[in-house]
Amino acid sequence: MTAETSQTLDRGLRVLKLLADTDHGLTVTELSNRLGVNRTVVYRLLATLEQHALVRRDLGGRARVGLGVLRLGRQVHPLVREAALPALRSLAEDIGATAHLTLVDGSEALAVAVVEPTWTDYHVAYRAGFRHPLDRGAAGRAILAARQGTLTEPGYTLTHGELEAGASGAAAPLVGITGLEGSVGVVMLADAVPERVGPRVVDAAREVADALR
């Protein structure tokens, strides 16, 4: 810790991260051991986080992430969308296809930003707010490949007809952003994705990731 940082805040954030990484919650003793601090400090941290609904404790005393985190999370999408729009606009105009940023939302893929090209006669109607299973469509499959460590060169995923008949998609995952799973992709009315599209999507995903760091 440096003179400019808060040890208490740092510990509180570490508690949230530890709880976010478990499905069954953690006891005060478990948190104490993982943080390397005494139980009294953990009790105070949990009590403060509970006041802000960021942590809740069940009848057995296990602490879990609270619903207050969801309220904070809802404010993330507009910030991410704003950061991604320049790269998405460039991608849509360059490829002549609908570009999108997709994030994981629970067990689904959620399109949080969509940009349509301005110069094409037609394009796929794809809207922000559109949801689909992670294992269907290029956007979700790219995210799963990154999560499972199965993504290989050239670094993008291609699909055809999985979400809409006659439509093909290409997507590349966002890489190197802690706590955020997502992908950047395009969807087009075509039997196959042109060869140059995949690498261009990878470049756009890298631009978005850089903007979010």
From TrEMBL:
Keywords: DNA-binding, Transcription, Transcription regulation. Gene3D superfamilies: 3.30.450.40, Winged helix-like DNA-binding domain superfamily/Winged helix DNA-binding domain (1.10.10.10). Residues 68-213 form the IclR-ED domain. SMART domains: HTH_ICLR. It comes from Streptomyces flavotricini. InterPro entries: ArsR-like_HTH, GAF-like_dom_sf, HTH_MetabolicPath_Reg, Tscrpt_reg_IclR_C, Tscrpt_reg_IclR_N, WH-like_DNA-bd_sf, WH_DNA-bd_sf. This is Helix-turn-helix domain-containing protein. Residues 6-67 form the HTH iclR-type domain. It comes from the Bacteria.
